[in-house]
Amino acid sequence: MDFACSSLPQAHKVNLARQPSSPVNSCSLGSVSVIGFSLPQFTSPSLSKCLRKQSSYGSVRACVAVEQKTRTAIIRIGTRGSPLALAQAYETREKLQSKHPELTEDGAIHIEIIKTTGDKILSQPLADIGGKGLFTKEIDEALINGHIDIAVHSMKDVPTYLPEKTILPCNLPREDVRDAFICLTAASLAELPAGSVVGTASLRRKSQILHKYPSLAVEENFRGNVQTRLSKLQGGKVHATLLALAGLKRLSMTENVASILSLDEMLPAVAQGAIGIACRTGDDKMANYLASLNHEETRLAVACERAFLTTLDGSCRTPIAGYAAKDEDGNCFFRGLVASPDGTRVLETSRKGPYVFEDMVKMGQDAGQELLSRAGPGFFGN
Question: Which one, of 185, 178, 177, 319, lies nearest residue 240 by Cα?
């Protein structure tokens, strides 16, 4: 097995080190290969030394393993190469293996790492790149072309319209949907001094921050994976940032959290915290595997939220938030929000109804239509 390893500087309060139990830090990854990345070539037939970039703060190893396949994989999983994307792929693999003993054999599940457009263009804000499927297009193409069997996505990255010849029948149990506040000097957004700069590439976060805290500034071109953004924060490029708590939990990096924002303070992105798994239309074998993993409560909530997003025709240029969940009575409670990019106007609505697919989709659509009507033409500036 060959390893390509990178290092990240450790911070004092923002601790970039992951816990040993983190699946991303495990070098026993099973069968993994890489598409679209330039990796060092090793000549060792078994285990070669990890490349380690040293810094004055020490180093943290983030390993990607590349193995020779010793057998034909039963399932080839396609994913991005970020530590969070890999953690989600490993979670998928572990759930498949726990339910299907034949998948526990060496090489039965192979992870294919695919570089996407969103991974390649890091110098511009997402809103400036434009288009949909920035983090999914190349993975979907690999699925359609038969290079992989299933595709593991962060659901908030998935366009509202799936590519032809694919279906997305499976959502894993949803993680915490809230956003986390990360800062070296303050415990909350409210404690930041006027003029402080918050780094976020999300227009949803930007608009809600500026709406509630107009004295703050937002750095939009704050891109990169979780580790990169934490490193930028520790290096003083911004005073604070917001990250999805779900990703920090999956990476075992919650020690970096200064506080967790309530849903009233920061409504999450549509489908935040949810993992979706796609396969080809007509691939009954993969569809049956995915059916065994599907968490129906999450699937219905995501369907409600995505119906809301579809109605608004949301994109990276549109500040939209939405969250559906089962309340104490077993009903669906949905909250939706649209905002002007500068945060000067924020419109919100809510719905409540049966926790049933058709009803929830209708709730999302109805909420979207209401906000479209209230916003009026030109509200989003595009």
Answer: 185
Does residue 60 sit within a domain?
no
The sign of the dihedral angle between the CA atoms of 73, 75, 79, 81 is negative
Do 279 and 303 belong together in one domain? no
Are 159 and 136 in contact by the 8 Å Cβ rule? The answer is: yes
Residue 22 included in any domain = no
Examine the domain organization and report whether 218 and 240 are in the same domain: yes
Please give the single-letter amino acid code of residue 38: S
Give me 228's structure tokens: 């990169």
The alpha carbon dihedral of 196, 202, 208, 210 has a sign of: positive
Closest alpha carbon to 242 in 257, 263, 224:
257
Q: Which domain holds residue 248?
A: 179-260
Distance CA 290, CA 262 (A): 32
- Residue listed under structure tokens 């992951």: 18
Q: Are residues 301 and 290 in the same domain?
A: no
Place of tokens 């010793």: 70
Q: Dump pLDDT digits (tens) for 124-151.
A: 666 666 656 888 999 999 999 999 999 9
User: DSSP labels for 161-209?
Assistant: SPPTTEEEEEEPPP----EEEEESS-SSGGGSPTT-EEE-S-HHHHHHH
Residue 11 forms part of a structural domain: no
Q: Are 347 and 338 in contact (CB under 8 A)?
A: yes
* 32 HSE (CA, 13 A, CB side): 26
Question: Of the candidates 172, 367, 191, which has an alpha carbon nearest to the alpha carbon of residue 274?
Answer: 172
Which structure tokens are listed for 114? Answer: 């695919």
Number of Cβ atoms within 10 Å of the Cβ of 145? 10
Phi then psi for residue 73, to 5 deg, are -70, 145
**Per-residue confidence at 46, pLDDT binned at 50, 70, 90?**
very low
Count of domains for the chain: 3
The CATH number of residue 247's host domain is: 3.40.190.10
356 and 302 in a common domain: yes
Residues carrying an active site annotation: 157
Q: What is the pTM of this model?
A: 0.81
Under the banding of pLDDT at 50, 70 and 90, the label for residue 4 is: very low
| CA distance linking residue 357 with residue 300, whole number of Å | 6
| Token digits of residue 16 | 């970039």
- Total residues found in the chain within this entry: 382
In a domain, 29, yes or no: no
Q: What are the pLDDT digits (tens) for 332-375?
A: 999 999 999 899 999 999 999 999 999 999 999 999 999 999 99
